[in-house]
Amino acid sequence: MTNNLVSLPSGMILNMDNVAFVAALPDAANRRKKLRVAFGSTSSGGATANIQLDEDDSNALIRALAKVGVDVGALRESTGGKG
C-alpha cells in the first residue's frame, strides 16, 4: 500500500502497517460491533491491542481493504454488509 493510513467515519485513523489481522466478531451480522482489529506491537514484547469497530467503521475498513486488492468476500458475508 502506498498510503497505509485508513480514516474511519468515527474519526479514528488506522495505520495498516500495525494491523496484525481483521476478523468478524461472532454473529457479526446481528451485532452493532462488527469487526475485531488486532494490532501487533514489537515495542511491548509482542503484545497485541484489539479494537472492535461498529458497522460504519467496519464497512469503511472493508472498502479500504478491497481497494488495495484484499479479498474481503468473507468479511462482507460475515458482517452482513455490502462493504
- What share of the residues does DSSP label as strand, in percent? 25-35%
- Poorly predicted runs: none
Coarse morphology: globular
First-residue to last-residue Cα separation: 19 Å
* Helical residues, percent: 10-25%
> How many beta strands in the DSSP annotation?
5
Which helices and strands, and how do they pair?
Blueprint: E1 5-7, E2 13-15, E3 19-24, E4 33-40, E5 48-54, H1 55-67, H2 73-79
Antiparallel strand pairs: 1-2, 3-4, 4-5
Could you characterize the architecture of this molecule?
- This protein has about 80 residues and is of the alpha+beta class.
- The chain has 2 helices and 5 strands; from the N terminus they run E-E-E-E-E-H-H.
- The strands form 2 sheets. Strands 3-4-5 form a 3-stranded antiparallel β-sheet. A two-stranded antiparallel sheet has the order 1-2.
- A hairpin with an 8-residue loop joins strand 3 and strand 4 (about 35-40).
- The longest helix has 13 residues, at about 55-65.
- It is globular, with a radius of gyration of 12 Å.
- The protein starts with a strand and ends with a helix.
- The mean pLDDT is about 85.
